[in-house]
Write a structure and sequence with these properties.
Radius of gyration: 18 Å
Number of strands: 0
Oligomer: single chain
Strand content: under 5%
Length: 207
């Protein structure tokens, strides 16, 4: 993608043209949004907005790809586009069809959590934290995107939230396995040479 965007002058305009086409099929919309997210170019932000607003987002695949494109491309319209995606996410069912199947909301996290959490721009981190504080009904889902992000803002929010939950659970005599997520995630990251930045470590030490 880097090669294409730097060598082919019509590549980004082609992505814009694709995203702004009317009556895109689900498959075409998902692929276009994923490609836009991997490009990560701010000039794609307006096209991403049009793509996710001209027809309602439906199903985990469309919502996941939209979340990826919005967090990577949108700048001036980030809050507006994030509202569109999260409104659609809220409409998804939180219930599992069976013990072995993921809920529609969990499917979004299964896919986008792996993709987004490793590469989330600072502006998107702040926007997601703001949404967590406003959307209490889906804050647990949104915070899933934050604990893997090497950002003082993200880690501070996630650790403080988990600490509050731990205090409440201890008072009630409950256990929460999620308390181990942060430590385990960063321990695994070391295997791939991914080390937490000094800024993030300092923020955690202050907490």
């Amino acid at each position: 993608i880097q090669h294409a965007t730097s060598r082919q002058s019509n590549f980004v305009p082609g992505v814009i043209e694709h995203l702004t086409m009317a009556d895109l099929s689900t498959d075409a919309k998902v692929k276009g949004l994923l490609l836009a997210g991997f490009c990560g170019r701010p000039e794609l932000g307006v096209a991403v907005e049009k793509c996710i607003t001209q027809t309602p987002l439906q199903g985990p695949d469309e919502i996941e790809s939209a979340m990826w494109a919005v967090t990577q491309c949108c700048r001036d319209n980030l809050e507006k586009c994030l509202d569109v995606v999260l409104d659609a996410f809220t409409d998804l069912s939180p219930d599992r069809p069976s013990k072995t199947e993921l809920s529609e909301r969990d499917k979004v996290l299964e896919f986008s959590g792996k993709r987004i959490a490793w590469d989330l721009p600072k502006s998107a981190v702040s926007a997601i934290v703001d949404q967590c504080q406003k959307r209490f009904d889906i804050a647990d889902y949104l915070s899933f995107f934050l604990y893997r992000v090497d950002s003082p803002i993200a880690l501070s929010y996630w650790v403080r939230r988990r600490a509050e939950e731990m205090r409440e659970n201890r008072k009630a005599g409950r256990k929460t396995w999620g308390d181990f997520f942060l430590h385990d995630e960063w321990r695994r990251s070391l295997r791939y040479g991914r080390i937490m930045s000094a800024e993030s470590r300092q923020a955690l030490w202050k907490i």
